[in-house]
């Protein structure tokens, strides 16, 4: 790899001779290059332990579905007892087809270094095909340990063809982005509706022992529980959810036992429902009503996406064992037992679960049901927070403070603003809809839409990354896509009866996310178009008579090349620059984690004596940003390491020049530099550039490397000042009315009310300096 240092007056690239370079990562990067894949070498004892843990963490939602499935499927009562066999058969095969076959045995393998969920699929695709709308990709990104890009083989040119079509089509990039934020919006809707329907259905059981309670009173009891649930989110999932995780295991034992009891006591003949012909008979008998009832049946698989989204805490094999060995048998037995009970008492379909419980077990089951509903809600909320925190790295929403609530469990986060809005929405839904049937109509749309988004993204993964035979890809897309389409068409028939809610929710959230991302991209390109060439740094400083002041200055910028337009404005208003000055870029890679050894990339900006640098700090979308003091210390250490390496490399180059002055290097070993005057697009790599006539770095004679490192330590002790551009973005005078509304009103509202960049980066207010600037796009 070539080594270059930006200097005024032009640059020229050096020859790559005997010294192998990995930018400022040389050495440390080598130590972590052999990172293991997720769950690749886990012992069976560890896997079984993880399988047991997963029962109490990721199955709360799907495990509490028996509370409301039959009542949602038969809102007008059971007209024919044989309909129970048809519905039970639908439930069993829906559980087998969607969560078991699709997710457990196919989708889970598409994890992104262990992380799952819609956003992980998008990030996985974006590593293989550059589909992001902001051109900040670097060649060094592919050197990160778990980036693992595999070039499509020549035998399967279809994958390369699809990749080229996606990369070259802006419409395809926008479509994929839209699909991803649609999935994110639906998960947020799921996180809002899960607490409402789970808690309300669990609390409704109290009316069996206290019939004098009205539905209004049940609603207000549910609201009180929901208020408590959202109030304790700030303490973290590990303290709220994991503390009660054994309750879910008890819950599965109870529902399996009660189901087996009802099967034996009431009607063992319902086992005939394993024959799928009963599904055919059910639709023949009921026609359109049978099709409409699918909106209730699909609720048996709510929470399935959570298995994939929460995969990061476990491994694929552990989830497969816990699903097939515990979840499926327990839930299936529960549904079978309820069907057996309803064969004798069809009039009780409105409250099947609690009425089918043997009298001695009622109160223990009721208490466990309440706890299980709370845990199910907690798990879904935690997943929603995690997915939204990942979406922040895509530039879809304003930077807000993401609080990591657990040191033990990675990825457990809490976002105060989002928690408040979701809690308020969940309480409003509970008060407005009042019954689980009405909420279920809205809930089903969120569930099936998320399934559909995953199916489409998975198809791309199979095409681009797995490179499976086209027959298998078509089989996957047709079978699961067609199944989900049938369920979606059924749920949409209940649009007026509550199905409109998630659509309204998704439209609002997607509008906000698309608006923020649109302006974010426009702002990035504006800065890129108005970038100041780095070879004009000396002229810029002299023109404004800039003096150097003690301390370290970090100027945050989205750009990874050139001088951002906010810098000339800063030195024009305040003609002073800190002794050590760093243009700091926080960049999120499309991978879950970046190891600390590979965090920073450095380059020299301007002459060596000016001590100005560019630094790109790279994070995965699941990484936690360090606190300011920790970050500054880590940055200083890496900067000193960079200076040490540059010195060693320069000396090595000098020795090579002296020993072989006339050596010609093959063209393949050289790297031509690109002018900093031009706008560099996605393939531009960040490398320190060598200038001067000799092609090597010139260190001041009176400053040794150790003195330079000591100087950095002294300046850090004197204080670190963080500088940020406070950009006021407005639409140009010739813009359309729609663009003016989007930029001047919606974006401005979000920026003023939600944008807390300094809080998101953990920057102390007393060390922060904001520089106002206006961009007209």
From TrEMBL:
<dbReference type="Pfam" id="PF22776">
    <property type="entry name" value="K_trans_C"/>
</dbReference>
<feature type="transmembrane region" description="Helical">
    <location>
        <begin position="439"/>
        <end position="463"/>
    </location>
</feature>
<feature type="transmembrane region" description="Helical">
    <location>
        <begin position="413"/>
        <end position="433"/>
    </location>
</feature>
<feature type="transmembrane region" description="Helical">
    <location>
        <begin position="321"/>
        <end position="341"/>
    </location>
</feature>
<keyword id="KW-0633">Potassium transport</keyword>
<dbReference type="InterPro" id="IPR053952">
    <property type="entry name" value="K_trans_C"/>
</dbReference>
<keyword id="KW-0472">Membrane</keyword>
<feature type="transmembrane region" description="Helical">
    <location>
        <begin position="361"/>
        <end position="392"/>
    </location>
</feature>
<feature type="transmembrane region" description="Helical">
    <location>
        <begin position="50"/>
        <end position="70"/>
    </location>
</feature>
<keyword id="KW-0813">Transport</keyword>
<protein>
    <recommendedName>
        <fullName>Potassium transporter</fullName>
    </recommendedName>
</protein>
<feature type="transmembrane region" description="Helical">
    <location>
        <begin position="90"/>
        <end position="110"/>
    </location>
</feature>
<feature type="domain" description="K+ potassium transporter integral membrane">
    <location>
        <begin position="50"/>
        <end position="538"/>
    </location>
</feature>
<comment type="function">
    <text>Potassium transporter.</text>
</comment>
<feature type="domain" description="K+ potassium transporter C-terminal">
    <location>
        <begin position="550"/>
        <end position="777"/>
    </location>
</feature>
<comment type="similarity">
    <text>Belongs to the HAK/KUP transporter (TC 2.A.72.3) family.</text>
</comment>
<feature type="transmembrane region" description="Helical">
    <location>
        <begin position="213"/>
        <end position="232"/>
    </location>
</feature>
<feature type="transmembrane region" description="Helical">
    <location>
        <begin position="244"/>
        <end position="264"/>
    </location>
</feature>
<dbReference type="Pfam" id="PF02705">
    <property type="entry name" value="K_trans"/>
</dbReference>
<feature type="transmembrane region" description="Helical">
    <location>
        <begin position="500"/>
        <end position="519"/>
    </location>
</feature>
<feature type="transmembrane region" description="Helical">
    <location>
        <begin position="290"/>
        <end position="309"/>
    </location>
</feature>
<dbReference type="GO" id="GO:0016020">
    <property type="term" value="C:membrane"/>
</dbReference>
<keyword id="KW-0406">Ion transport</keyword>
<dbReference type="InterPro" id="IPR053951">
    <property type="entry name" value="K_trans_N"/>
</dbReference>
<dbReference type="InterPro" id="IPR003855">
    <property type="entry name" value="K+_transporter"/>
</dbReference>
<keyword id="KW-0630">Potassium</keyword>
<feature type="region of interest" description="Disordered">
    <location>
        <begin position="650"/>
        <end position="679"/>
    </location>
</feature>
<keyword id="KW-0812">Transmembrane</keyword>
<dbReference type="GO" id="GO:0015079">
    <property type="term" value="F:potassium ion transmembrane transporter activity"/>
</dbReference>
<keyword id="KW-1133">Transmembrane helix</keyword>
<feature type="transmembrane region" description="Helical">
    <location>
        <begin position="470"/>
        <end position="488"/>
    </location>
</feature>
